[in-house]
Amino acid sequence: MIKVKNHLGTVGISDRYLKTLISKTAESCFGVADINSAGAVQGLAGRIRRRRGDSFGVSIKHTANGEPVVGLHISVTYGVNLNAIANSIIHKVEYVLESEAGVKPSKVNVYIDGMLS
Q: Are 37 and 74 in contact, with CB atoms under 8 Å apart?
């Protein structure tokens, strides 16, 4: 949970909301073919339940200051520039988090796990 203070008071933003926002943002980016599981726990839970939630493929850890460090696991379309896609996703996720949730992430890591044709 991240707490943001403004002139109206303190607002709590859950990690689940942030993960959903990040996942939907990444899915809308050019060249992203699929969102992959972010670790063994998500992979196993996804296979047991046979469905994927909105926060699938996104991990959020917090720094000592409370700023989020985002990890995003994706597969990309074959033939696209990997560096350009990763930089585009990083900038778009940072922008959406700041504009929609008022949260500035400490870092956004994009892990490209595969290529799909």
A: no
Domain range annotation of the chain: 14-116
Rounded-to-integer distance, Cα 13 and Cα 80, Å: 34
pLDDT tens-digit readout, 34-64: 888 766 555 555 555 545 566 678 999 999 9
Specify the DSSP element, H or E, that contains 68. Answer: strand 68-77
Give the pTM: 0.80
Q: How far is 108 from 117, CA to CA, in rounded Å? A: 26
Take residue 106 and report the two structure tokens written for it.
């400490």
Rg (CA), the chain: 15
CATH 1.25.40.10 fits 14-116, yes or no: no
